[in-house]
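Hi Prof. W.,

I finally got the Ras-related protein Rab-7b prediction working! I wasn't sure whether to trim anything, so I left the full sequence exactly as given:
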Amino acid sequence: MSKGSPVGGAQRGPERRPVLKIILLGDSGVGKTSLMRQFVSGKFESRYKATIGADFFTHEEIIDGRPVNLQIWDTAGQERFQSLGSAFYRGADACMIVFDITSNESFSHITTWLQEFTLQAGQKDMVLIGNKADVQERRQVYNRGIQQWCAEQGGDMQYFETSAKQNTHVGAAFRAVATAAYRAKTAKQGGEEPPMMAGSIKSLKKDETPPPARGKDEKKCAC
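And this is what came out:
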């Protein structure tokens, strides 16, 4: 018997790591590629070529003490590529919907992206990301509108305000959705009820224009 071999059976191979497929959605130019590359490689480039169809990177993350492979898909935001979506959405475990805080237009499209993902992949864990927080002087989207949108989704959408350039809250956003998706997936495999993702909206900085006062009859958002 060779040294180190288990008694009474063949040596067991390494345990297969769980894989989570996470998709980034949002209009072209909101910073999906920058966010993905910042999280995976810790690098930021001021110019990227527009993503054609989809691209993905694999990143290892420790979740609940276990190594998990994250397969992060960056889909093109141009409408002409949306017809390719079904193949890219297939098997998705989570979604990150990204808009640009300096673009009201990109924010106005997030409902369409959410509906497209739900149609293709079903109800899965999601986070909302407002990117480009490093250019507050050009800000067009404020907390009140974000809170209202989250409330319309049932109040369970977690929101992160990020800067891919300055690496602000990028890792936290990816880890939040990955952890929620991993726990939901393992709970489903074990026949348990998956836990709800909870979080709070990130407050504006002191030098930002505050949102209008909220009326008493407005719903609070747990996003």
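Helices lie at 32-41, 85-89, 104-108, 110-121, 143-152, 170-189. Does that look reasonable to you?

Thanks,
D.
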